[in-house]
Write a structure and sequence with these properties.
single chain; mainly alpha; Cytochrome Bc1 Complex, Chain D, domain 2; 22 helices; elongated; disordered N terminus; binds heme C
C-alpha cells in the first residue's frame, strides 16, 4: 500500500498547478456573509455545514459555480448565496478560505458556536477503523475504488479540484455521500457509482474516519468483507492452451502488438472475457471462433493458467508523456473524464475482484484499438458502460497520449 501511495503522490505532484487568481484579503472582506454559517475562518459550528478552511481554492470555486448555475449541485441555502457572486468574488473567497489553517485550534473559534446542537443524534455509530480500511482499500468485489486514490492520504488530496476531506464534519460527509448515492448531487461519475454501493453503516464509518484521520493513524485498519475470486486448474488450463499459442504465445505474452498479452492478467477478468466472447456480449469474430467449443470448466482453467504466467515488460520510453500522465492520475473534471487510476489503480495493475483489467505492460496498439472500440461502441461489455462513458470523451490525441504514458508505468 505504501508503494502505491508514494507512486500516486509522485504522479499527482506535478498536476498541482494553480490557475485561479484570487485575492485572499479581498476574499476576507467578502466572507462576512458566509461567516454566519461557515464561521469567520471557515470552521463551521453546524455539523451539516461544511468546513471551508484549508479546502482547495479550485474546488471551492468549482462548487460555487455549481451552486450558481444549478447544473450539478442544487442546494436551497447555497443557491441564493452563490447567485450574487461574480467570478472574481468566487476566486477571492476561494483564496481566503484556502489560506485558513484546517485545524480550528490554530485558526480561532468559529462564529456562532452557540448553534452547534442542531444535528440530529446519529442513528448509526460509525467505526473509524472500518472507515479507514474502506478509505484506503475500497472494495474490489463491489467495484468501489479506494478513496485514497483521489482524496489523498488521510484525506488531503493532491489534485486541486478533488476536495480535501480531512477534519470535515462527519454529518456533512454522510450527507454528501447519501446525496451522491441518491443522485441529488450528481456531477461526478466516480462518486455516484462508488457511493451507490455504500451501505449506511459504511457511510457512517467513513464519516467517523474522516473526522480526524490523523487521530487514528496508528489504529490498524479493520477489514470488513472477504473477497471471492474465480479459481481454475492451472495444469488443465495449460493442456487446453495449444490453440491459443498462434496468437497469444505459449505463455500468454503475445509478440504481435494487435493481439493482447494475457499473461499475468487477472483470472476473473480473463474468464469474464472468454464467457462474453462466447455469448457475443464482447463482439469479436476471431475470438468467438476460438471459444465456441470451450466448456465453462475449460474457460476457468485457461484463465487460471494464463493468470499464473508472468507478463513480459514493455520498453519504457525515455520521457514520460505528461498529458497522458495527467489524464491517467487526475482525469479531466471539465470534460467529465474520471481518472483511469481510480479503477485501473495507480500502478496500472487493475483490481482482480472488480474485474478491472491490468493495463501495465500491455501492447500499446492493442490498448489503442480497445479505447477506440469502447468509444465507437463496438466493444460494449463493460459493466454499467463505465469504460464507454469515459472513452466517448477521449479525442484521438488523448488516446495517443494515454497509450504512450502507459508504457512508463
Ligand atoms: C445560511 C447558511 C449559509 C451561508 C450564509 C453560506 N453557506 Fe455555503 N453552505 C451552506 C450549506 C448548508 C452547505 C452544504 C450544502 C450541501 O449539503 O450540499 C454549504 C456549502 C458550501 C460550499 C461547498 C463546500 C464543499 O465542501 O463542497 C461552499 C464552497 C460554500 N458553501 C461557500 C460559501 C460562501 C463562499 C458563502 C458566502 C458567500 C457561503 N457559503 C454562505 C450554508 C451556507
Ligand atoms: C476517481 C476519483 C475519486 C474517488 C476514487 C473518490 N472520490 Fe470522492 N470526490 C471526487 C470528486 C472529483 C469530488 C468532487 C465532486 C464535485 O466537484 O462536486 C468528490 C467529492 C467527495 C465528497 C464531497 C466532499 C465535499 O466537500 O462536498 C465526499 C464526502 C467524497 N468525495 C468521499 C469519497 C469517499 C468516501 C470515497 C471512497 C469510497 C471517494 N470519495 C472516492 C473524486 C473521487
Ligand atoms: C487467431 C488469433 C487468436 C487466437 C488463436 C486466440 N486469440 Fe484471443 N484474442 C485475439 C484477438 C485479435 C483479441 C482481441 C479482440 C478484440 O479486439 O476485442 C483476443 C483477445 C483475447 C482475450 C481478451 C484479452 C483482454 O485483455 O481483454 C482473451 C482473454 C483471449 N483472447 C484468450 C484467448 C484464449 C484463451 C485462446 C485459446 C483458446 C485465444 N485467445 C486464441 C486473437 C486470438
Ligand atoms: C470506473 C472505472 C474505470 C475507469 C475510471 C477507467 N476504466 Fe478502463 N476499464 C474498466 C473496466 C471495468 C474495463 C473492463 C471491461 C470489461 O469487463 O470488459 C476496462 C477496460 C479497459 C481497457 C481494455 C483492457 C483490455 O485488456 O482489453 C483499456 C485499454 C482501458 N480500460 C483503459 C482506460 C483508460 C485509459 C482510462 C482513463 C482514461 C480508463 N480505462 C478508465 C473500468 C474503468
Amino acid at each position: 500500500m505504501k508503494k502505491v501511495i508514494v507512486s500516486l503522490v509522485l504522479g499527482l505532484g506535478m498536476l498541482a498547478t494553480a490557475n485561479a487568481q484570487g485575492d485572499a484579503e479581498a476574499g476576507k472582506a467578502k466572507a462576512a456573509t458566509c461567516a454566519a454559517c461557515h464561521g469567520a475562518t471557515g470552521h463551521s459550528a453546524v455539523d451539516t455545514y461544511p468546513n471551508l478552511a484549508g479546502q482547495h481554492a479550485e474546488y471551492i470555486v468549482k462548487q460555487l459555480k455549481a451552486f450558481k448555475d444549478g447544473s450539478t449541485r442544487s442546494d436551497a441555502v447555497m443557491a441564493p448565496m452563490a447567485a450574487g457572486l461574480s467570478e472574481q468574488d468566487m476566486l477571492d473567497l476561494g483564496a481566503y478560505f484556502a489560506s485558513q489553517p484546517i485545524s480550528p485550534s490554530e485558526g480561532g473559534a468559529a462564529v456562532g458556536g452557540e448553534t452547534a446542537a442542531v444535528a440530529a443524534p446519529a442513528a448509526i455509530v460509525g467505526d473509524a477503523a472500518a472507515g479507514k480500511y474502506l478509505y484506503e482499500n475500497g472494495d474490489e468485489a463491489r467495484a468501489i475504488g479506494a478513496c485514497i486514490g483521489c482524496h489523498g492520504k488521510e484525506g488531503a488530496s493532491d489534485v486541486l479540484i478533488y476536495p480535501n476531506l480531512a477534519k470535515q464534519h462527519p454529518e456533512y460527509i454522510e450527507k454528501q455521500l447519501t446525496q451522491f448515492k441518491e443522485g441529488t448531487r450528481d456531477n461526478n461519475y466516480a462518486m455516484s457509482s462508488f457511493a451507490g454501493q455504500l451501505t449506511e453503516q459504511e457511510i457512517a464509518d467513513l464519516g467517523a474516519y474522516l473526522k480526524d484521520p490523523s487521530a487514528v493513524a496508528n489504529v490498524v485498519a479493520k477489514k470488513t468483507k472477504a473477497v471471492a475470486v474465480v479459481t481454475g486448474d492451472i495444469e488443465l488450463g495449460k493442456a487446453k492452451s495449444a490453440t491459443c499459442v498462434a496468437c497469444h504465445a505459449a505463455d500468454g505474452n503475445s509478440t504481435i502488438a494487435m493481439y493482447p498479452k494475457i499473461a499475468g492478467q487477472h483470472e476473473s477478468y480473463i474468464y469474464k472475457q472468454l464467457v462474453e466472447f462466447k455469448s457475443g456480449a464482447r463482439n469479436n469474430a476471431v475470438m468467438a471462433g476460438m471459444v465456441a467449443a470451450l466448456s465453462d470448466e475449460d474457460m476457468k482453467n485457461l484463465s487460471a493458467y494464463f493468470a499464473s504466467q508472468t507478463t513480459s515488460k514493455v520498453a519504457k520510453p525515455e520521457k514520460v508523456n505528461e498529458a497522458g500522465r495527467k489524464l491517467y492520475f487526475g482525469g479531466d473534471s471539465e470534460r467529465g473524464i474520471t481518472a483511469c487510476a481510480a479503477c485501473h489503480s495507480p500502478s496500472g495493475e487493475g483490481m482482480q475482484a472488480a474485474k478491472f483489467p491490468a493495463l501495465v505492460n500491455q501492447h500499446s496498439e492493442y490498448i489503442k484499438i480497445q479505447l477506440e472500440q469502447f468509444r465507437s461502441g463496438v466493444r460494449a461489455n463493460d459493466m454499467n458502460g463505465m469504460m464507454q462513458n469515459i472513452a466517448v470523451k477521449l479525442t484521438d490525441e488523448d488516446i495517443a497520449n494515454l497509450t504512450e504514458f502507459l508504457k512508463s508505468l
